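Hey L., structure's done. Input below.
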Amino acid sequence: MKILVIGSGGREHALAWKLKQSPYADRIFCAPGNAGTAEIGENVAISASDLGPLIRFAKENRVNLTVVGPDDPLAAGIVDLFAREGLRVFGPAKAAARLESSKIFAKELMREQGIPTAEAGTFKRSDDALRFCNPLRFPIVIKADGLALGKGVIIASDLVAARSTIDAMMNQGRFGEAGRRIVVEEFLRGTECSLHALVDGANYRLLQTARDHKRAFDKDTGPNTGGMGAFSPANNWNAELEDQFHKKIMRPLLRALQEKKITFRGLLYPGLMISADGVRVLEFNCRFGDPETQAILPRMKSDLLPLLEATIDGNIDTCTIEWDPRPAVAVVLASVGYPNKYETGKTISGLDAAARLDDVQIFHAGTKPVNDEVVTAGGRVLAVTALGSTIEVARARAYEAVSRIQFENCHYRRDIALSAITDNIEKLV
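Output:
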């Protein structure tokens, strides 16, 4: 089979890496890809947002399956366009992708179905949003309705911060059209968990759990990012919570979509808060998470390709997924300044030395090949993933690999998965 992976980040490198292992995969194309995908497939100089050229490439090269990585092309209807041309594609159609592309749509659907989530108000006028904030207990969460590269969620500590955020989003256009409408909701307390599900319209199969580290700096401080690291499995998940998830979230959600005559086929990734009252939905994502994918896929022993095909064909319920029981830790190396202003074009060294370590895999994100070197080309540059017999071993191995990689203005958190080790120690005491 010829497979096209759309996107250029660490998630897409991980997907291409895993799909390349399938005995059914002949050629892997990545559009536009990065320095890592260039080593396992063929990069194509087409942006993930250039839908017309992507369709032409898939048709001209007789691509058998296209896998969409990022959220933007899904929101723009790439799956509908590919399907209209008779092209086989993995990902939800535009109507289903609204679960991620419109937080207001998702919030209203959850409210209709009684799916547990934060209490919230939705607004298209800033003065209405400001009046709503006045009596609230702070902190509160303010979310841009649309897609904002993982940066459209702001925690406002007081009324002054709330007013400033609302003005920046709705009046000053901080996130463009994505922030013209907003959601203001209560701040949920607890611990977060990421859960991925392959959904074929009526049935689904859960992947292994993971936990992401969103804040830029150690001890969960600094601005929100797209994710500075992850580990799998999550240390805050159990059978009771999974039962709640099936009964109170996934089944009502699929029922609601069917009632609206919306078929969801693809990867659904609900971000969850584990609170004192149980599982609450923070948001829905309609594609593989980043960097969760870089922690989850190295643990998948099954062939990913037949699972994606079964999802498209509507028979994921006939599939089983085998997992490596060992935990994985993924540490993101970023450019100093991310998620705000940062420099690129810095030469990266030590990649081969890090990759020689046992059970280590390096996933490229913001990289590109220049002559015989690999240089930085984005905010998040690499994700270094390691497996280990315990979370402690996996974490130590990941950071040993990180220590072998150098580039100017490299930044990474030093506490990825540390909470899981602390929790393990506390349970033994």
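Residues 239 and 245 are 10 Å apart (CA to CA). The chain has a mean pLDDT of 95.

-- N.
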